[in-house]
């Protein structure tokens, strides 16, 4: 594993813990726990869960960055044809190699 994959794994783990903790707290509050479930605590648990899910998504994007770039036709800041892999000139609308229309 390289540093990027380790960082992504830590981000995914942190997001999972945060989302799981917010679900646990919310479930405990709704079952008559010591804290009172009001609008403020409801908002905070939902916000914590949203941040956790956001961290999970960021971790997966970071972990699979190369695969996503290949899928989208972007490599090292250059554009490539998703059909044949030929390098595309800046502003090109069609691939010079295979003729595929580019978006």
Structure description:
The longest helix has 28 residues, at 3-30. The chain is built from three helices and two strands. It has two domains: 3-63; 67-103, no CATH class. A hairpin with a 2-residue loop joins strand 1 (74-75) and strand 2 (78-79). Strands 1-2 form a two-stranded antiparallel sheet. It is mainly alpha-helical. Helix 1 packs antiparallel against helix 2 (39-63).
**Total helix count?**
3
How far apart the termini lie comes to 34 Å
**How would you write the strand order of the largest sheet?**
1-2
**Rg from alpha-carbon coordinates:** 22 Å
Domain module tally: 2
Overall geometry comes to elongated
Helix content class: 55-70%
How would you summarize the topology of this molecule?
Elements: H1 3-30, H2 39-63, H3 65-72, E1 74-75, E2 78-79
Antiparallel strand pairs: 1-2
Helix pairs in contact: 1-2
Summarize the structure.
The protein is mainly alpha-helical and 103 residues long. It is built from three helices and two strands; from the N terminus they run H-H-H-E-E. The chain folds into two domains: 61 residues; 37 residues, no CATH class.
Using brief descriptors, characterize the structure shown.
3 helices
């Amino acid at each position: 594993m390289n540093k990027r994959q380790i960082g992504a794994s830590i981000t995914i783990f942190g997001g999972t813990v945060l989302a799981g903790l917010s679900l646990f707290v919310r479930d405990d509050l709704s079952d008559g726990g010591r804290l009172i479930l009001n609008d403020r605590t409801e908002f905070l648990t939902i916000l914590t869960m949203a941040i956790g899910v956001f961290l999970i998504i960021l971790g997966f994007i970071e972990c699979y960055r190369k695969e996503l770039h290949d899928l989208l036709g972007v490599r090292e800041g250059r554009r490539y044809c998703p059909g044949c892999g030929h390098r595309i000139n800046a502003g090109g609308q069609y691939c010079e190699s295979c003729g595929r229309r580019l978006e």
